[in-house]
Amino acid sequence: MSKLPQAHKFIDLSDYGRPIARVIANRLKHTQFTPVHITLAFIVSGLIAIYCIIMGYYWTAAFFLICKSILDAADGELARVKQTPSYTGRYLDSVADILLNAIIFSAIWYITETPIWLTVLAFLGIQLQGTLYNYYYVILRNKFDGDTTSRIFESKTPIALTGEKQSHVNTLFKLYTLLYGGFDKTIYFLDPRAAYGKIFPKWLMTSISTFGLGFQLLIIAVLLVSGLKDQIIPFFVGYSGMIFIFIAIRKLFYK
């Protein structure tokens, strides 16, 4: 099950780990490993990266940040090759991502002289970036019968799919809406008509894919090993301004 049909796929700059993720998924296809196991593995990888950031082991931190991105793609790939999509995995993945992001930015604040208010602003900025990218991407996936586990509007608890418990879906959905609800509503407020407009061109989706978590972690990794750790938080604050530019482009030319 592909996220998008071949004719509508675009170059996703945040998805650089996909080739390795597919290898991992295919190796685990006939094992007892589940997508949730891979999600737990990327949580561990993220926590190791955070420890290394705090301790000043920036090359090791960069390695585990990239590893986290690869595993983040691998859990979805394993769900596809095993044909076991689940809302449990979808929401667990998202909840883990936002909590790890918060801790990563707290660690960067700890090792730099960045004001706490700017750190909070950067965190809010990257979450809005990722929300805009996911919003547009899910619209495409729903239009072209791609992977529809993610929904354009996460407003109602979904019915558990085969092989998962409704209680797990209920709990994780509540956590998801608690953590992401404000970001979803903000992006929807900024561009409520996106689902009814023209098909987004590939170049626009590729540009917006720089808002994807994989690319964000890659930027953090590169800045860490380049000795530019003090520039990480200001960069993400500034780059969040592109949210309004991308939305303006969508509204002006693809309404």
Q: So what's the oligomer here?
A: single chain
Shape: globular
**CATH-assigned homologous superfamily:** CDP-alcohol phosphotransferase transmembrane (TM) domain
Q: Describe the largest sheet.
A: none
Count of extended strands: 0
Structural class by sheet pairing and helices: mainly alpha
What does this structure look like?
It is a single chain. This protein is mainly alpha-helical and about 260 residues long. It has one domain (about 10-255): CDP-alcohol phosphotransferase transmembrane (TM) domain (Four Helix Bundle (Hemerythrin (Met), subunit A), Up-down Bundle), CATH 1.20.120. It is built from ten helices and no strands. It has helices at about 20-30, 35-55, 60-80, 85-110, 115-145, 165-190, 200-210, 215-225, 230-240, 240-255. Helix 2 runs antiparallel to helix 3 (about 60-80), helix 5 (about 115-145) crosses helix 6 and helix 5 packs across helix 9 (about 230-240). It is globular and about 45 Å long.
Topology:
Blueprint: H1 18-28, H2 35-55, H3 58-81, H4 87-111, H5 116-143, H6 166-190, H7 202-208, H8 213-225, H9 232-239, H10 242-253
Helix pairs in contact: 1-3, 2-3, 2-4, 3-8, 4-5, 4-6, 5-6, 5-9
Q: Nutshell version of this structure?
A:
The protein is mostly helical. The chain has ten helices and no strands.
Notable features of this structure?
255 residues, mainly alpha, single chain, Four Helix Bundle (Hemerythrin (Met), subunit A), 0% strand, globular
